[in-house]
Amino acid sequence: MYLLLVFFPLIGFTISLFFGRFISPRGTALITCTFLILSFILSCLSFFEVGLSRSPVYIKLSPWIDSELFDASWGFMFDSLTVSMCVLVTCISSLVHIYSTGYMSHDPHQPRFMSYLSLFTFFMLMLITSDNFIQLFFGWEGVGLCSYLLINFWFTRLQANKSAIKAMVINRIGDFGLALGIFSIFVAFKTVDYSTVFSLIPYFDGYSISFLQFNFDLVTLIGLLLFIGAIGKSAQLGLHTWLPDAMEGPTPVSALIHAATMVTAGVYLIIRCSPIYEYSSSALFYITVVGALTAFFAASIGVFQNDLKKVIAYSTCSQLGYMVFACGLSNYSISMFHVLNHAYFKALLFLSAGSVIHALSDEQDMRRMGGLIQLLPFTYTMIVIGSLALMGFPFLTGFYSKDVILEIAYSKYNFLGTFAHWLGITSASITAFYSFKLIYLTFLAAPNGYKSSMQSVHDAPFSMGLPLFFLSICSIFVGYLTKDLFIGLGTPFWNGSIFILPHHLNIIDAEFIPIHIKWIPFFVSIFGGSLAVCLYHLLLRLSFSFYNNTSLFIFIYTFFNKKWFFDRLQNELIGSSLLKIGYAITYKTIDKGLIEFFGPSGISNMVFIVSKQVSDLESGKINQYAFLMFICTTLLVSISLVLSVIAPYIDLQLSFMFVLYIIINNIKLNKIK
Amino acid sequence: MLIDQSKFLFVAISLFFIGLCGIMLNRKNIILMLMSIELMLLAVNFNLIVFSVFLDDIIGQIFALFVLTVAAAESAIGLAILVVYYRIRGTVSIEYINLLKG
Amino acid sequence: MLSLLITLPILGILSILIIPEYKVNLIKQVAFLSSLLTFICSLFLWVFFDNSTSKFQFIEYFDWMSLFNIHFFLGIDGISLFFVILSTFLVSICILNSWFSIKKHLKKYYVCFLLMDLFLIIVFSVLDIIVFYIFFESILIPMFLVIGVWGSRTRKLKAAYQFFLYTLIGSLFMLLAIFYMFFETGTTDFQILNTVLFSEDKELILWLAFFLSFSVKVPMVPVHIWLPEAHVEAPTSGSVILAGILLKMGTYGLLRFSLSLFPYASIYFTPLVYSLSAVAVIYTSLTTLRQVDLKKIIAYSSVAHMAFVTIGIFTFNLYGVEGSLLIMLSHGFISSALFLCIGVLYDRHHTRLIKYYSGLTQVMPLYSFFFVFFSMANLGFPGTSSFAGEFLTLIGSYQSNTFVTFLASTGMVLGAGYSLWLCNRVLFGPLTVNYIKQYTDITRREFAVLIPLLLCTVWMGVYPEIFLDTMHLTISNLLQKI
Asked: Are A623 and B33 an interchain contact pair (Cβ–Cβ within 8 Å)?
């Protein structure tokens, strides 16, 4: 049953990719959706068995790479962490599959799309269910590949090509860090198996390893290197630039990959390696800082974006920052709970945004929408539910995870916790601001779109509406229903899959913080939301004149719109200098210049010049011959007579070199007479 | 009665070198080359005479007579060849004697 | 068994020579048949191979020049087995590939290829150093002919000369070193020479001489410029053989001869090799980014992969050497497949500049599947053979030197950059209707040529155990000395 769970999507992929031509698009849609739904049912069953009945499953398949001590085998491990992610991944994936049958119904490449979605699900499941780091890496790269293929789905569009390559290359930089982390793990522990490594970590506390000639504490080094992988995959600050550009792909892709699953792979890695991170507080420090900064940074950019999907993408990035800094503060279970909840309402937001875009015939700019509330009431409801859940409206899903994260950040009572708390609160208010801005500009404002697109507006068809409905139910109820299971005090659910050192636990302290601290997130969200409505509805004229006329605002706007110029920094500083080096230095100067000079062209020219010079010696004039004979005989006789006497005083080899050097120089300078 | 023979030898050697330079550093004239060869022979002669005086051996002077004869014969033949060469080539400049050039 | 393997190409050559020039189809069929038979015979070598011993198997011994104690001593062990199989496999694929693209001097072309088949089998299975050297150099002759006669532009002559002279000059020093060893010990038998200990200074010089020859072949960075030229000018099949197997001769020589005969010098010169290879990975990857000729891109990426191999060999632990062997085999498959893909394009449009190709997925979807797959394999995607190899190599080198591993891993990122950029520019994007006039997707023959390579790559990626098993004992034995 467990293996079927993982391999059903692969079978769906193979069938629809290779035989999609023979079964019609309806056939591929049917097959892939069926396999995914079966997978979902199986994962629910396994959730019951592994999670609720507390019996983890370990399956070892065949050996993969087996060389001396390095034994990576194909193996699967289903424990509570895995199985909760499995439920999430298969649920969202099957809903997205159903959604895409409606969204991509008039796209001629629908079978290919469905097959790519199934392939992605397969790789994600491999990543989650692996029991050693190498298989994790397999899944990790696999989801990177699938994101490349999916972002590049409409491959004739140049912007999509560029975004796909950006995504893959930046992910690869993260993979480079992850690979180095795996090497360090192997060198220290001589194994890459999870169970072995995690049980051995306590014995390696304080052990130092030399990396790049510097001495690092082993556990910190491993933690940091693995975190670089997480930075790349989960779009943390530094390697985040691919996420907004990845919105070039179709909306179901964004929902699946960039909301629910792939970007959470990095957080999954950190949570899975919690035994490693617990023993190195420096790594936790960096993780918290990076996470908190990402949360703030992404939210601040999201305010000034104009594209519907980009706003939601930045909110994803911001929420990922929340998850990461929750991990950094040693509360892995709360982070995991936020992963699960966030997937639902973010997927809801993306899919409903997709519904809006689909209705308006692929119009994505928010400023050109408006007044859709009467035309798309169902979608409007969905977006409002999703946004409220995102903002952490009391007793919806987001409240139970997001507010708890802020509470535990406060209750750490050290600099790190307070830093994270402040940034978290600010991002919460900014999140509320842009969520409401989105809702307002899209639905409530005066209509601002093209007449032709407004005329063909139709609400979501059944295949698109069903997943939205399901997700909205989840967004409202899942938080309350599963809160106690995942983050309740003393819950036995995690059963050893997450490890927290006793002196890092602060969930009890989080219950007893002052009541006004607990109310702050609610008030700042209300404030943010109402500010948005205020600015865009009531004070529209005032804010409009402020926007367009003050140079201060124009500066602020460009700064945030261009993503703090991070993109440009990366492109100009790193990208174009690498390309320039590749051409000007390595190719032109060295390859064709220096090496050719010492190689073929240089040698052949030298041979030509030297032979010309030597042939000049033979001039046919007797007096020159006589001169040469005289000089050479004199030299020969004198040197052979004198050599044995002066040999101790001069270095023979050096003097020979010296003579050779003089001769060669003279050869170069003399032209043909 | 110790007369320093190095002065005489110095004269002989300088004459020899002047002749040698005349051969090697010559660019103009073959007649100059012939004359230099005569100079070299003269220097050798001088050397032989000097040594025969200082070593009290008569062989040196006899050999000098030999050399004198051979020098005379050789310069006669040389000049004869030069005259024929001039008739054919029209010049006695050394620059044009390079048929051996490879 | 090995003598059977050698006589088959000879029979093939003789039968081709008999057939008259105008019976074109018959010549091609005979050539393909003989190369296929050789491949199947070499598979039998694998089937009957005994995994549990590290000695040489299938030994055959022919007296050749007993005066100088040079004998024709053939034997296979875990390392050479795979190279023999790979070479016969690639030659048969090449012959199948050049079915329609070679028009003139057909007989001589197929004779060249079968000669290369023969020489390659002998090079990888001979245990005598002088015989190894003779056939090592004689492979250059048919290769030179293939590049020079059947290449595509007039620059082919310069490239062919450059290829030939470069490799030959590098090998001169190796010949001197071999002679020196012969006069010292009186024998050129590899197994006997293995037991000889040279003094340390002499070992250093001998190692350097051998290294000069192998480094030109591998190619290592300062002496690599013959490779792009040779690849660009050669016909598709020539490039496939060149990239697939000729580069491996250099690393095979390093592994077999330099490591076993001169262990002290190998350890002494490890920093040199490491720095050259690390520089090579980054340098060639950067240069690849800016190329405009399809073949040059794959040629430069071959140099980068070979740099990985040399890093792996000089790690002196089991992971590194096994990883480098895996990379060698997988590179044989993947580079050949990529060159075949480029050959498909070249056969249709007769240009190799990227400028003219764009948006090909719209007209050749099946082809673009292969191209994307092999590009992913090129950058080391897990599940393909190159991942297993690269990962093992990097783990091996991490244990000896973390800085070199760090630099070599940046090759992962740069590799993704150029491979994906290539895919993007050629396959995706808008269709250049001005230049693309012929819209046929890959033919059945080209499909049959690419599919075995794909299957091998995936097989080796998913289950490299089969390959690694055979190598274990041999390599452990090799490393014992060090």
From this structure: yes
